[in-house]
Amino acid sequence: MVNLSATEDEWQTDDETGYENPYDYDPNAVDENDPTVEADDPSLDPAEDTEEIAEDEDNEIEDVEAGEEDGELAEIEPMYPSYEAWVEGWFTQVIRRKMGPGGGESGLAWDARWWLYPEVAGRFKALWYAWEEARASDKASAMSNWWIHHLEPHVRVIFDSDSGPMSHAKRDGSFSGWPALPYEPMPAGLRAEHTEDD
Question: Which of 166, 180, 44 is nearest to 97 (CA)?
Fold first, then answer.
């Protein structure tokens, strides 16, 4: 049992488990009481193990490089031929939310003519690329990562009925997006300054 009333100098760390000061810990020390550790087995040469691991890693790197040259690592065929097909065949069929009445009123905003909104189209294209990559990934968490880190942030903007790209969309089709942001070309002198900084 640890004595909690002791001062720092009297602190006891020994208990029924035989625990000692962690600062004395040696990760390479062999526990002589451990029945799984055998004494000095000549067949266990750490130098040989290290050489075998190094050879295996070299072979893996060579296999990857050879595969790239031979075209073995060719692109995986996408499930959908385009982002438009993905929006129609996957997004609009899987993503189901309670939509508001439109026209900038409360709730979520959506326009079936999503392709009229350049920002929405651009976001869908990015989502489609990331979705295809996650779908083809060997990682079990890839699709979860896509939902959390790709889909959700984009959907929040796309469906935003306050200031999103389709925020005033109405079923009658009278709204087809906000005007483009005003733009003025950068003065040549200022452009040169920015180029020099790069």
Answer: 166
Q: What is the DSSP letter of 6?
A: S
How far, in Å, CA of 127 to CA of 112, rounded? 18
Within the chain, how many helices (H) and strands (E) appear? Answer: 7, 0
CB 125 within 8 A of CB 160: no
Is this model's pTM higher than 0.90 or not? no
The CA–CA distances, whole Å, from 150 to 41, 137, 153, 160, 185 equal: 53, 15, 6, 16, 32
Yes or no: say if 117 and 175 are a contact pair by the CB < 8 Å rule: no
What is the DSSP-derived secondary structure letter of residue 101?
-
Please give the angle made by the CA atoms of 16, 21 and 25, to the nearest 5 degrees. 110
The phi, psi pair for 135, rounded to 5°, reads -60, -40
What digits encode the pLDDT tens for the residues 138-171?
A: 999 999 999 999 999 999 999 999 899 999 888 8
Three-class SS state of 140:
coil
